[in-house]
Design a protein that fits this description.
Elements lengths: L5 E6 L8 H16 L2 E5 L5 H12 L4 E6 H5 L24 E5 L2 H10 L3 E4 L4 H16 L6 E4 L6 H12 L11 E4 L13 H10 L23
Parallel strand pairs: 1-2, 1-5, 2-3, 3-4, 5-6, 6-7
GO molecular function: hydrolase activity
Organism: Psilocybe cubensis
Protein name: Cytokinin riboside 5'-monophosphate phosphoribohydrolase
Length: 231
């Protein structure tokens, strides 16, 4: 196992997207993880944004752990869901140093990643990325863990989610205190500066400055179990 001081699970797309800023944000994050000796825990492979962030960690001399379901290994990895017109340099050097764990199911993949991480960062992605980010946030809300969830809001990608959370709070489905379970990194107001912004350092600072107990968890999962008898 890696000697990196703590793991960060990064959720992101297996496509690169249509805007270069998505990939540059991923590269910035990967370089920062390596610089700060944080183990990258991710879904494995070298496609899309996943390949950019993992390649940047390797380039910076950092440690990478991939967690891959056996069905994807048998199929040769995840394909790009959307073919991008944006040309992105993928650093393939050092891929042999990636430690891979093969699991049976997608659920096992998510549990393994969460257990090996002390925090979570979301980059742009699709349905899988959305589901992973929201699941670890739900686990925070339920009190299953108390770990930071940080979203890199490059080009305001995550803004619709922030709006949806606020709408659900207004409608009475999410407690106002639970809004703090996710921290959005917005970057410069001018989107033209998003390609050069240091998203990685901002993400590391957000993880390090996270205050435990932000969300007033709904349940306590430790301690003695109680058996309920139906009367």
């Amino acid at each position: 196992m890696s000697s990196a001081k703590s793991g960060v699970a990064v959720y992101c797309g297996s496509s690169t997207g249509k805007c270069k800023a998505f990939a540059t944000a991923a590269r910035s994050l990967g370089l920062a993880l390596a610089k700060h000796d944080r183990l990258l825990v991710y879904g494995g492979g070298s496609k899309g944004i996943m390949g950019v962030v993992s390649g940047a960690v390797l380039e910076g001399g950092g440690k990478v752990l991939g967690v891959i379901p056996h069905a994807m290994v048998a199929a040769g990895g995840e394909d790009e869901k959307v073919q991008s017109t944006t040309k992105v340099y993928l650093n393939e050097a050092g891929r042999e140093k990636v430690e891979n764990i093969v699991v049976e199911t997608m659920h096992e993949r998510k549990v393994e990643m969460a257990q090996r991480a002390d925090g979570f960062v979301g980059l742009p992605g699709g349905f899988g990325t959305f589901e992973e980010v929201l699941e670890v946030t739900t686990w925070s809300q339920l009190g299953i863990h108390d770990k930071p969830v940080v979203l890199i809001n490059v080009l305001s990608f995550w803004e619709p989610l922030r709006t949806l959370i606020k709408s659900s709070i207004d409608a009475g489905f999410i407690k106002p205190s639970s809004e703090r379970l996710i921290q959005f990194i917005d970057g410069p107001e001018n989107h033209e500066e998003h390609e050069s912004f240091d998203w990685g350092t901002a993400a590391i600072e957000a993880l390090d400055n996270w205050e435990k107990g932000r969300g007033d968890p709904l349940f306590v999962w430790s301690g003695e179990r109680t058996t309920y008898t139906r009367t």
